[in-house]
Design a protein that fits this description.
The protein is mainly alpha-helical and about 425 residues long. It is about 80% helix and about 0% strand.
């Protein structure tokens, strides 16, 4: 067994048992509902916030800074959030964080309704919400294995991610224009309400939190964060996966930051073309949620991620070289399926191979390393698009994915 893994963790290349889905009873249904409702509200805010920022300033740097503030707290507090998640009752931490976010969003919605919204307020809101998210997300990752049996983790993660994708891409996006007709504050007020609903659902869970291991005398949060990093690095499967994910997120940052320019500029497909590409990605992601657990049963989790990375690289090459809208739609659809395959198996592998008492810290170390690549990729994507052509960020992303696949290949038995 690799150091740092749980005693019953599968070997890196081992195939999991037959895919099973969790029962909705026993707490998973409420946790799923809370996650989907919260993602729905987050998507309303995410869609409305850039529009509000653009109405307040035409400075691209200031507008981009709002997005950057959504990354910075992960780099500053991601490890701390994981250490705290391992110390506290994760269920209580989650509903308390959701209530705090609900209060923040309600106050922000009121400020916008009273015409007191400013760029400074947007920056502060983005920073505070993501800071709270570092605790919420790590606690959620650690709580799931206490709610569902280990053999259903992949199915649970697939259902969670698929439900969130449906709420984000198919429910929230079309609703934002209708809410904006009511008023600029409406999407933010709706987001506040979803946080409160999510908090109530999580608070209603009756499942006990995982048993906490005894803390060493004089133990500090800094020492516990270091323990999480060391545990992640000692496990060869998680170490390789974290490095590969960080490289992929460099590519994803470059792609996401410039995709609208790629479609509307390089392809000259306009806003309707961009909408078609995004819709294809969203629909395909839902399909990927159904495929991911089954593929892992056939070839194993690491091999599933490896195959997903290869296919995604090919899709990015097509996106960056074929100057046709239909090719972009097809490429992003394939990319969406494989993104979900990667995400489901990555999350499940972290949960399977981490000791329960360290899951918050190990998952936070994984997330912090992975998310750190995104802002770097966004910067690189903008630079290469300006220096060469609007299609070069897709090719840059393909290069980053190639490195990620190569780094993961060492784990394939």
């Amino acid at each position: 067994m690799t150091a740092g893994a749980t005693a019953d963790a599968p070997a890196a290349g081992e195939k999991p048992a037959q895919a099973r889905v969790p029962a909705w009873r026993g707490g998973f249904g409420r946790l799923w509902s809370a996650a989907v409702v919260s993602r729905f509200g987050d998507s309303l805010r995410t869609a409305a916030l850039p529009l509000l920022a653009a109405s307040l300033t035409d400075d691209p740097l200031l507008i981009a800074s709002v997005t950057a503030c959504g990354y910075v707290p992960w780099l500053l507090f991601g490890l701390l959030g994981g250490a705290v998640a391992d110390r506290v009752d994760q269920r209580r931490a989650m509903w308390a964080v959701d209530l705090a976010r609900g209060v923040l969003m309600a106050g922000f919605a009121l400020a916008v309704a009273l015409d007191h919204g400013t760029i400074a307020l947007l920056l502060a809101l983005a920073f505070l919400l993501t800071t709270l998210q570092t605790l919420f997300d790590n606690a959620a990752t650690a709580l799931l294995p206490a709610i569902v049996p280990r053999e259903t983790l992949a199915g649970a993660n697939a259902r969670l991610m698929t439900g969130q994708q449906v709420a984000s891409g198919f429910l929230a996006a079309p609703l934002v224009p209708a809410l904006l007709v009511i008023g600029a504050s409406a999407p933010f007020a709706a987001n506040a309400a979803t946080y409160v609903v999510g908090a109530l659902l999580i608070a209603s869970l009756r499942t006990d939190a995982p048993t906490k291991a005894a803390k060493a005398a004089g133990g500090t949060l800094r020492a516990e964060m270091a323990d999480g990093m060391r545990a992640l690095w000692r496990d060869s499967a998680l170490r390789g996966l974290s490095v590969a994910t960080a490289l992929m997120n460099i590519g994803m940052g470059a792609l996401i930051a410039t995709l609208v320019l790629h479609i509307t500029g390089w392809l000259d497909a306009g806003n309707s073309g961009y909408a078609a590409v995004i819709t294809a990605y969203g629909v395909a992601s839902v399909i990927g949620g159904l495929v991911a657990p089954r593929l892992a049963v056939r070839i194993g989790r690491i091999r599933s991620a490896f195959v997903a990375g290869i296919v995604q690289t090919c899709a990015l090459v097509v996106l960056g070289t074929v100057r046709e809208l239909w090719a972009a739609i097809a490429a992003m659809a394939v990319f969406g399926v494989m993104s979900m395959v990667w995400n489901v198996n990555q999350t499940t592998l972290v949960q399977e191979r981490s000791p329960a008492e360290m899951l918050g810290r190990i998952s936070s170390a994984f997330r912090t390393l992975a998310i750190g690549g995104a802002p770097l990729g966004a910067l690189l994507g903008g630079l290469v698009a300006a220096a060469w052509s609007l299609n070069t960020p897709a090719l840059l992303a393909a290069g980053a994915f190639t490195l990620a696949v190569a780094s993961l290949g060492a784990l394939i038995n």
